Amino acid sequence: MDNREKILTSALDLFYARGYDAVGIQQIVDAAGLTKPTMYYYFGSKRGLLDALLGEQYEKLERCIDQAAVYNGDFPETLFLVAKAFFHFVSENRKVYSFMLALFYTGQENEGHKAVEPLISRYYRKITGLFEAAASKLGNMNGRQKQFALGFQGLLDMTFLRVRSQTPEHEAIVLDEMQIRGIVKQFMYGIYS
Amino acid sequence: MDNREKILTSALDLFYARGYDAVGIQQIVDAAGLTKPTMYYYFGSKRGLLDALLGEQYEKLERCIDQAAVYNGDFPETLFLVAKAFFHFVSENRKVYSFMLALFYTGQENEGHKAVEPLISRYYRKITGLFEAAASKLGNMNGRQKQFALGFQGLLDMTFLRVRSQTPEHEAIVLDEMQIRGIVKQFMYGIYS
DNA sequence: ATGCTAATATACCGGTAGGTATAATAGGAG
DNA sequence: CTCCTATTATACCTACCGGTATATTAGCAT
Questions:
Q1: Which stretch of A89-98, B63-72, B81-90 has the lowest confidence by average pLDDT?
Q2: What does CATH list as the number for B1-44?
Q3: Which of A54, A135, B35, B44 is the most interior residue, by most CB within 10 Å?
Q4: Nearest CA to CA, how far is A105 from chain B (Å)?
Q5: In 3D, which of A192, A193, A160, A158 has the Cα closest to residue A174?
Q6: Fold classified for B46-192
Q7: What is the DSSP string of A52-104?
Q8: Over the stretch B104-131, which tens digit does the pLDDT of each residue have?
Q9: Do A17 and B112 lie within an 8 Å CB cutoff?
Q10: pLDDT 10s digits, A121-145
């Protein structure tokens, strides 16, 4: 692992545990066994570090979802595949996804919020696109695709947070296929009722 | 409004917009038109200010819910009354509830998280108690009361965040009874399916 | 008027924040 | 061997952080 990666890793650990604003550059480079100029050489600023961290991690999430999110006519199955891809990613990247959610929930004038906001919006557009692709077949969404997308992703986030809180920090987050199908089923019943 | 209140108000405004760690005491007292020693006279420390702010606001939320959350045999109706009380509170206190959620989602080693955690836990215990009171009549919960409570509250939070994001900062958040009934209905279908 | 207390301001503390000027080091290309 | 560039560290900057010692003000009871 080169020094750039060391800094990114230490930063994520600390941001996840204490939050972006509560962590100083000094603490990050200390944890990485380096010094401040090294961090500024690679990232230019604290915000630059955050952007790099979020950008690189978000790309991984997006690739995960893109591989799964192909509407093929069977909408519940598509949602299941998306949910499965999502949980696969967050299980192996619990820190980064938790951190992204935390940043997104902080005040809109917060620097961290401004950094994640475009990524989260982009992600939601992707999920919304799924519902729009299915709109012609489902028919009864009445322009509520965005609301459904938010509801669906909210259910996934909520489930992630619940399972995370019940899983010790050092253990892997586990959700089997049956549980994931259960979540999608619950969501679909909500839509059709 | 006395000076103590002025400080609490300014603090909430700033914490809500920028986050707890990103706001300094100096900014808070400047916004309130006062000076630092006044803040330290009333609250002793930044953490003391946060505790006072959260404590006083949480009490209002708890009173709101307590008035509504009395299980009377009709469980869906009980949930509806709780949801209605919840939305009534968050509509009139959008900043404080948003701020509480933000703090709760930040890292567990963050001071702000430590401050809200007991309040949120207490709140969840209250909601869980509702499901436990209904357990004898509903019967089929199989010890999943806590999970249902988290799911139900998560749905309320999610809805609040969605409606909030669609409501301009200066406008009141509005959810009519029909929409609230729809949310509860969606949740119940999930349980029974 | 006098003394007491609650409430507020001025001016300051040590520490650390984000950030940088400068120099040393190291590895490859010629 | 020598130069060049990429990388890293030492030492420092200013600004602001949370917090406080001290003085002042205002109101009130005597």
A1: B63-72
A2: 1.10.10.60
A3: A54
A4: 5
A5: A160
A6: Tetracycline Repressor; domain 2 (1.10.357)
A7: HHHHHHHHHHHHHHHHH----S-HHHHHHHHHHHHHHHHHHTHHHHHHHHHHH
A8: 999 999 999 999 999 999 999 999 998 8
A9: no
A10: 999 999 999 888 877 776 666 667 7
